[in-house]
Amino acid sequence: MMQSRALHYFAQLHEFVDSAIDQRVFGGVVFFVKREGDWILHSAKGFLDTGSEDTPMDEDIIFDVASLTKVLVTTPSIMLLQEAGELSIDDPVADYIESFRGTEKLSVTIKDLLTHSSGLPAWAPLYVFADDKKTAIEFISHLPLQYSPGEEIKYSCLGFILLGGIVELVSSQNLAEFAREHIFEPLGLRQTFFHPPRDFFSRIAPTEHGNVFEQAKAARFVEEFSTVASQDSWLMPRLSQAEKRLNSMRRDGLIRGEVHDSNAHFLGGVSGNAGLFSCASDIVKMAEQFLPGVSSREKKAILSPESIRLTITPQKEVGGERRGLGWQLIKGNGTSGGRVMSKSAFGHTAFTGCSLWIDPLRELAVVLLSNAVCPRYQPGPMTAFRPAFHDLVVKFSDCIFTPAHA
Q1: Domain count along the chain
Q2: Is this structure's pTM higher than 0.90?
Q3: Is 63 helix (H, G, I), strand (E, B) or coil?
Q4: How many CB atoms lie within 10 A of CB 103?
Q5: pLDDT class for 380, splitting at 50, 70, 90?
Q6: Fewest Cβ atoms closer than 10 Å to its Cβ: which of 69, 234, 244, 334?
């Protein structure tokens, strides 16, 4: 009976993914699933470039994993520095970023940034307001808070850009160098990096043709920013600069092998919010340190058990959302992880069409990598696809293993 149910969900899962390709939710996809240390799914479907059937998708294809950078690089980097006694997540950000001092942001802590509860706006097109990384951070420092720190949860890429800057300041290393030395090499990752080498480009999934969506978003931001800028003498000349720069920051042609996120691109391809490239097998290795049942012989943990516990247990809960450090935690039916994972599950998505969800109770890791923004970003389909996909994965895995209690 269980075998027939497993075959049913296995077929339903593959039909669902094939249908998504037919409907152009994405051109191609790679998904790897591991449970209790065993591979139960690893598959590549579709094609590398939407609209082209020249190059089939492959399990070793490298993706721009965008905001997975936040939980695979930036968060563990902060925790490693805390373990080394170089900082504390309870430290005020102003201890590290001078332009926070003497402002309303004096009480914002590193933990507030990690839990997306700092009060900072979600996003701003730094590339039209700033000249370099230093002035980008100063620009963020001049933005007014949208709420008092700790009172709400509002996802903020800007907060993680600051965290990347803190890692660099404290470690005296570029974030990419720190990650390579303390994360990628210790875990034995062979296809994970910022700035992919050119000889890897043929194995990298493309993202958008140009940055049309973000250009439109940046134009709206600049248009609506005049009220804010008029209240700050440092911001006013930046607004005039931004209006002139909008068109010059356009990116043309197929984006491939360089980061899709325009802020990360402006910051040299290395940022706390985005910039990481990786493949499914490497991401599984990073996920395994969060699976308690995987033996120390089979996994390499870069973080201490206490740091892992802190990152994946509730640190902030407001309304319908719960946050660990960096990670989104399952709550109700409102996450991309679906409705079937246990209450201990946590995960993160990426704008480019990638995600990672981990269910420690089931000892389950689900890596989903797609080229959903190629050739153009479309907001709805991927949002609907992710939870349904994860529900089918969990139902299939529960037919093979003893179901965990949520």
Answers
A1: 1
A2: yes
A3: strand
A4: 13
A5: confident
A6: 244
